[in-house]
Amino acid sequence: MEEEVLLSGWLEKRLPVLRDTWEPHWCVLRQSSLACYEAERECSVPKLELRVLKWAAFREEDAFGDAQLHRKTRPCGFVLDLGTDVPHAHQRFVHFDAATEAQLQRWLEAFQAVTRGTGGGKWKEDEVKDVDGVW
Known about the structure:
The protein is of the alpha+beta class and 135 residues long. The chain is built from two helices and eight strands, in the order E-E-E-E-E-H-E-E-H-E.
């Protein structure tokens, strides 16, 4: 049985190596993960599937990853922390842009609902330590 879709919509995702390159993705949030597709129709296999642990809006003073680098040019951006269980340290933080303040708020509220009771949630500065100099 497929999980209920909690929120879906277009987000721009920053490429992990080319920090100034962003690509549009159709993103679908379910209780267990955020799936990213190339087209609005969900393919059988997402281009990317992420388990959301922590998040922060770029505008937050203590936002992690490269959020501070993009704060002025991407005011509706947010970053997800996937934790240390990733193949490469540079994949820990994933950056997105919601394009509008209203869309950003919808995504942040949905992440809060998904992580409630899981030990995840809004990022707090004292919870994340430097991982191989990633941030």
